[in-house]
Structures are given as C-alpha cells and as structure tokens.
Specification:
This protein is α/β, with parallel strands linked by helices and 801 residues long. The chain is built from 29 helices and twelve strands. Strands 1, 2, 3, 4, 5, 6, 7, 8, 9, 10, 11 and 12 form a twelve-stranded mixed beta sheet that branches. The longest helix has 32 residues. It is elongated. It starts with 10 loop residues before the first helix and ends in a 5-residue tail after the last helix. Belongs to the monovalent cation:proton antiporter 2 (CPA2) transporter (TC 2.A.37) family. CHX (TC 2.A.37.4) subfamily. One of its GO terms (cellular component) is membrane. InterPro entries: Cation/H_exchanger_TM (IPR006153), CHX17_2nd (IPR057291), CHX17_C (IPR057290), CPA2_transporter (IPR050794), Na+/solute_symporter_sf (IPR038770).
C-alpha cells in the first residue's frame, strides 16, 4: 500500500480542504502467502471486476433467454446489479470492488468501449442502402422522427416551469427530443440478428429504415451540439461547424481513399496485411482524440471512421473478424459497468418531483415513436401484425442512448437521478418490445404452405421449378451434372433458380441480388465464373432448361430464409443444397467434411415450402465423373435405396425422371421387413402404389432394374447395402427419414453423425462406406401450418436458439 505524503501549505488540511485516502498501487502482489491482499493492487482488481460482471451478465442471459431478452438487457442489468443500486450499496463490497480511484479506470476504458462499438457499427453499416430503398422506408423514417420530436417538444413546453434550469433551455429540449425520436442502427442490428430476422422482410425494412432515421436524426444532434458550443460564445458554434466539415472531409477524402488503396492492392482471396488492420484500429483512438479536441463529441470520430471503411471483404470483413470479440466481450463490459456504477435506483424516489417532466417527455417520445411508425406502416398497406412488429423494432433502445445520457451529464443537463431513470426506461422499453416482436412475427410463417409442391405430384408434362444453391465452385460441377441427368426435355422443361450463397461478413445489412433485373451485379470473380458456367450449360442444353441467377449475402443463421423465400415466390418443387465431402487418401477411413451450408441445411429441411434434396459430392467423383455434357460417352449407374415412407417415394419419383434419360442405368432396391413387422399400413399402401406404378411404367426399359431385400434389423440393412457396393454406382439416391419402418433401422439410431442426411444417407455418404459415388438425400415437402398457435408460442419461449 502506498502512503500519500503531504507538503506545505498545511493550512489546507486544517481547513478540511484536502481529503486523504489510500491509493491502489500499480505493482503486482507477491501473493496471499506473503500476507498481501490482491484487491489492494490495481491490475488484479480490474480482472476481478471484469470477471464478476461477465459472470453476472451471462447468468442473467441464461435466465432471461427463454423470455427472448437480447444481450444488451442482460448487460445493462448486470451493470445495475454491480452498482450502487444493488451490490455496491454494501459498503464493504463497494470499498473492495470499486474504490474511489477505480472510477477513473472504469470510465476511460468504458468510453473507449463505446468508441470501438460505434466504430464497428460504422464498419458494418452500408449507407448505399438509401439508394436502393423505396419511398415507403423514407416516409416511415421521416414520420417516425418528426412526430416524436414535435410531441416531445410540446410536452416539454407544458412542463417547462417544472424542468430543471439547464434542461428547460430550448436547446436542451431539442437535444432530448432528437435523441428520443431516432432509432440507432448500432442498437437495432444486434437485436435483429439475435432474433434471426436479418433476412426476413420485416428485418430488412427495419434496418434500411433505421439507416435513414439515423441520417435524419443526426442532423438534429449536430444542431444541438453546435448550439451547446455557442451558448457562451456564438463564434464557437461556427468553429464547431467548420471543424465538423474539416474532419468529415479529411476522413472521406483522405482516410477512405487510403483504405480503398489498401483494398485495391490486396491480392484477391488474401487477407489484408496485419499492419493495416493495426493501423486502422489505432486510428479509432486518433479519431476520438481529434473529435474530442475540436469539441465534436469523442464518439463521433470513431463512427465516421467506421463509415469510411469499405464494407465487406477484404478490409471490412477482416476488421470485424479481428476485433469484434475483443470489443464486445472485453471492452464493452467496462462500458456497462460504468453505466451501472453511475446509475443509482435509490436516488429516484427522493427526486421524483424533479424527474416527472423528463419522465413524461421520454414516455411521450417513446409512445409517439411507436404509434407514428405503426400508422405510417399501415398507410403503406402493411398488415396490422407487420406494422406493429416494425413499430416495436423501431422503438428498441440500447448502447447509443446510454452514451447520449452520459454526454448529457457532461453538459450538466441532467444529474444522476435523471440518468438512472433514463437508463431504466431504456432497458424497460427494450425488454418489453423484444419478446413481443418474437411473438408477433415468425419469419417462417410464409413458408407454411398447404399446397403440394414436390416432384411426386408435379405432372411430367409441366415445367419443373428448382432452386439450386451454390456455395462455391466446388458444388457447381455436381449441380450441373445432376441437372443434366435429371432429363429436362422440351415437354418437361426445368426452370432453375441458381442461388449463390455468400456469408455476410464485415457488413450488417443483408443483400439479395437478382442478376437479371438489377444493374448492381456482383464484382466477385468467383461468382462471375459460376455465372458463366451456368450460362454455358444453359446454351448447351437448349430450350429444355432456363437458368436464373441470384446471389444472397447474409448470415449463415438466416440464410435459409432467402432460400425458402425464393422457393416460395418461384413456386419451386425442389431445393437442392450442396454438401461436399472429400476422402483423405493417406488416412484410411478419414474424410474431410467441407461443411459450407451444413448448418443451413437443417433450417431449410425444417422450414422449406417444397421438397429438399441434399447433394453430397465426394472428392474422387467430383474430379473423375463430373465432366461437360459434350464429353459424356459412358452410361451413368444410379442406385435408389427405397426404405419406404414419403421421403423414399419422393426419391423414387425423382429417379423416375432420370430413368427416361438414355445415359442412365437405374437400380431400385426396396427394403422390406421380415413378415411385415413394424409396417405402417397406410405408408405401406402408398409405397406399394408408387412402386407398382414405377415398375409398370419402366417394365420395358432394359436399363431399369428392380429388386427387393427382406431384412430383420438395421445391421442386415447395412449388410445388404454393403453387398451392393460390389457393383459400381455413380450416384446413390435415398429418402431422408420420414415414414421409414423402424425395424429397418433398428440398432442404428446412435450411429448417424450428420442428422440432416438421415441414418442411411449418412452411412452411404461416410468414409466407412467405401464408395466414391455421390449421394442425393431427398426429403419430400412437409405440409405445415397445422400446428396450434399455443404450440408455436411455446416453441418460441424456450431455451433453444
């Protein structure tokens, strides 16, 4: 422990003008075995503070997750619990955990956390979205800002005599009204992402509307800041505006151009050089320093710097990848601890008479924000449910509002009781709105169709619509080969909607591109090569197939929404998803699973409005057997493993189309249980009907063979499939799992590793099954929309993600 030494003049001490207290030393302790308390040293204390906050926040996160509460609510409540509102009310806890000299550290690192948070939000924000949105978003954003500003200002004028002196100023009223009316994109995006609404229609509209709202609202904040600067000296407001223009022009004209040069000089497919990443992250501190030096508010500089970063890969994606975890999980806890230590719930009751005017202003602001957005949305013919959902999303509050409240305290506009009340209102509004959004809006609801959209019920003489997903060049060859052997003809043509799947990295707003109708095509050379290959294939096949190219850039978690939406709008009967496996030749029985869209597959299977086929490409087959149609000289040998059920019937219906191709030799193996044990009578009748139809139709086709195998359990089923492997096949076709007699799989339930392939599909695709052939696993459309509302509600309020 360091002792504070005092020198003359000693009369300051006599008058009580000097307070002596112990100061935490910055050196490290030798340990508790030397009789030293680690909490008397600065660094161990900081570590304990972060760990304690993280444990509390994560515990709250776990407890509140069934109620669909976002992470920001847990963080704010965690800070309040640590602060004087709860644990720090205990004197001994406060003295040990948060001594007086620790406030300096918490505040500075907390503000730094807000700086990097806004920088990261700026990197992810795509301002070009304002060029693509329609007048609907502009009007909703404009009405959602103007109406609350006017309503809050009128409320303030009614309670002007009751307002504190500083808060009663016209400029302060304007600042509060502007802050209460905007919807901050940095707050909105993480919550929309948590709710998995990024690719939903309402999520896209909310994000684009929030960007416009920020652009409108920031003008009001600039007026407020300039006015505050000019309160004492009018010339200071002018200097503020000049400094603002100079800094923005310097960032856009200088720093951004340097970043564009970095992107241009970075080799394609290579990461940005580490020195540039470090330089930009250090530049955040420089931007904050410059902004603070000119009186522009310290957080503005980092935000503008983030907006200047070219979004997406390679620079924006690299910055997000390298810094997001550290910022959100290490720096931001200090920010929320600072907020929690500043707020004191007990101070509200004693000051309620002074707090009432501001409370009514906030209440009117939040209410009119929601109502004005609701009315504007209804005016543009949105449904009542979607309008209410959008209004709730636009009412969300979080980190940006907390930073503004801290800024108002710096201006002496509000005191600690006012700050505490505003923090509580912020967390209350978000805590109420978020679960309501989850209840009101289900992004999968549009896919719950009750019309047959599958191959089995699509007549052969009609056009077949297929959504073909492509996650890279690895999956392209297998897709082209599958489409070709599926036998498109002029009487039964294919309309294929090729959807390029790109993971959203380094930007917040998802993008969906129709390359036929939009001028802003992709600059990605990888996509261009894919697009060219598809066009060449279309020209080679002729009029029997039409290719339509699309690209979706969104998060893996919400990518299934774009896939299902495209299938729904285009009335597709089949979605084809890629899954690439490659056997390692030097390690027997070992395989490399290039997952790509493996996580996407599960969601598509669960929500698809049509049938789904998962195409598993294996390395050797991909290299040796997928060649252009001009080079095909041999017959392809395909095998159908028919275990019964709706998925098996769909697989057989698809294989029947292939059987009409002269270059395809098809073998169908039907598995039956011994003495019909475990058979479902209805499924058995449906299976018998389809198999009989298939055999009668192809009885005269010498390239189609049909066999039946009787088994007693899953081991005999696997043995029969292994015996088939003695013959060479290019493709295995199998139903996923619905309707399979459990006797056929008895003893295999714990064997499967990839659940989306089903037990048999996973076995045939695995390295244990020594075959280089690819595998097509088919799931027939599941008719949805029959679940009860209560069941749907219970599923949403659960511990599942």
């Amino acid at each position: 422990m360091m002792k504070i030494g005092l020198s003359e003049p000693s009369e300051l001490i006599d008058k009580g003008l000097v307070i002596c207290h112990e100061k935490h030393t910055s050196s490290h302790p030798f340990g508790i075995f030397y009789g030293q308390n680690p909490l008397e040293f600065s660094f161990p204390l900081v570590l304990l503070q972060v760990v304690t906050f993280t444990v509390i926040a994560r515990t709250l996160r776990f407890l509140l997750k069934p109620l669909r509460q976002p992470m920001v609510v847990s963080y704010i409540l965690g800070g309040i619990i640590l602060g004087p509102s709860a644990l720090s009310r205990i004197k001994r806890f406060r003295e040990y955990m948060f001594p007086d000299d620790s406030e300096f550290v918490l505040k500075n690192i907390g503000v730094m956390g807000f700086m990097y948070f806004l920088f990261l939000s700026g990197v992810k924000m795509d301002l070009t979205v304002i060029k693509r949105v329609g007048r609907k978003q502009w009007y909703i954003a404009l009405i959602g800002v103007v109406v609350p500003v006017c309503a809050t200002s009128i409320t303030a004028s009614l309670f002007r005599k009751s307002l504190d002196k500083e808060l009663a100023k016209a400029l302060s009223v304007w600042g509060v009204s502007s802050a209460l009316s905007i919807t901050a994109f940095p707050v909105l995006y993480p919550i929309v992402r948590e709710l998995n609404l990024l690719s939903s229609e309402i999520g896209r509209m909310a994000l684009s509307t929030a960007v416009i709202s920020d652009i409108i609202g920031i003008q009001g904040i600039v007026i407020f800041e300039a006015g505050k600067q000019g309160e004492e000296r009018t010339i200071a407001a002018l200097w503020y505006l000049i400094s603002l223009i100079v800094v923005i022009v310097s960032i856009i004209g200088g720093v951004r151009q340097a970043m564009i040069w970095i992107v241009r000089t970075t080799p394609e497919g290579k990461p940005v050089d580490q020195i540039y990443v470090i330089g930009i992250l250090l530049g955040v501190l420089v931007a904050g320093f410059v902004a603070d030096m000119f009186g522009l508010a310290i957080a503005n500089g980092p935000l503008w710097l983030g907006l200047a970063v070219p979004d997406g890969p390679p620079l924006g994606a690299t910055l997000v990848e390298k810094s997001e975890t550290i910022i959100m999980d290490l720096l931001m806890p200090f920010s929320f601890m600072y907020v929690g230590l500043t707020a004191d719930v007990s101070s509200i009751s004693a000051q309620w008479s002074h707090l009432q005017p501001l409370f009514y202003m906030a209440l009117v602001g939040y209410t009119t924000k929601m109502l004005s957005t609701l009315v504007a949305s209804r005016f543009f013919d949105m449904t009542a449910r979607d309008s209410f959902t959008l209004s709730l999303i636009m009412s969300l509050r979080g980190e940006v509002e907390l930073l503004l409240f801290i800024h108002w305290m710096d201006f002496k506009m509000i005191a600690k009781p006012h700050f505490t009340m505003l923090v509580i209102l912020t967390v209350t509004v978000t805590a109420i709105a978020t679960p309501l959004i989850s209840v009101l809006y289900d992004p999968t609801r549009p896919y719950m169709v009750n019309k047959r959209r599958n191959i089995q019920h699509t007549p052969l003489n009609t056009e077949l619509h297929i959504v073909a997903c492509i996650d890279g060049e690895e999956s392209l060859a297998g897709l082209i080969n599958l489409l070709e052997v599926s036998n498109p003809t002029t009487n039964s043509p294919f309309s294929v909607y090729a959807l390029r799947l790109v993971e959203l990295v380094g930007r917040a707003a998802p993008v969906f591109i129709d390359h036929e109708n939009q001028e802003n095509g992709s600059d990605d050379s990888d996509f261009n090569s894919i697009h060219n290959a598809l066009k060449i294939f279309e020209e080679a096949i002729g009029e029997s197939i039409k290719m339509h190219s699309f690209t979706t850039i969104t998060s893996k978690r919400s990518m299934y929404q774009d896939i299902c939406e495209l299938a729904l709008v285009r009335k597709a009967s089949l979605i084809i998803l890629p899954l690439y496996k490659k056997h390692l030749d030097n390690l027997s029985g070992t395989e490399l699973l290039i997952q790509g869209n493996q996580s996407v597959s599960t969601n598509v299977l669960a929500h698809a409005p049509c049938s789904v086929g998962i195409l598993v490409n294996k390395g050797s087959y991909y290299q040796n057997h997928l060649v252009s149609c001009a080079m095909r000289l041999s017959v392809h040998h395909f095998a159908v493993l028919f275990l019964g059920g709706s998925d098996a019937r769909e697989a057989l219906a698809y294989a029947d189309r292939m059987a009409a191709n002269q270059d395809v030799s098809l073998t169908v193996i039907r598995f039956l249980s011994h003495e019909n044990e475990g058979d479902n009578e209805m499924e058995k009748k449906l299976d018998d009907g389809l198999v009989t139809w298939f055999w009668v139709k192809n009885e005269g086709n010498n390239q189609v063979a049909y066999r039946e195998v009787v088994v007693k359990n899953g081991l005999e089923t696997i043995a029969a499939i292994q015996a088939m492997n003695a013959e060479y096949y290019d493709l295995w076709i199998v139903g996923r799992n619905h309707g399979i007699n459990p006797i056929l799989l008895r003893g295999l339930s714990y064997w499967s590793e990839n659940k989306e392939l089903g037990i048999i599909g996973d076995f045939v695709a695995s390295a244990d099954f020594d075959s280089s052939a690819s595998v097509l696993v088919v799931q027939q459309q599941i008719l949805r929309g029959q679940d009860s509302a209560s069941g749907s509600l219970l599923r949403r309020f659960s511990f599942s993600t």
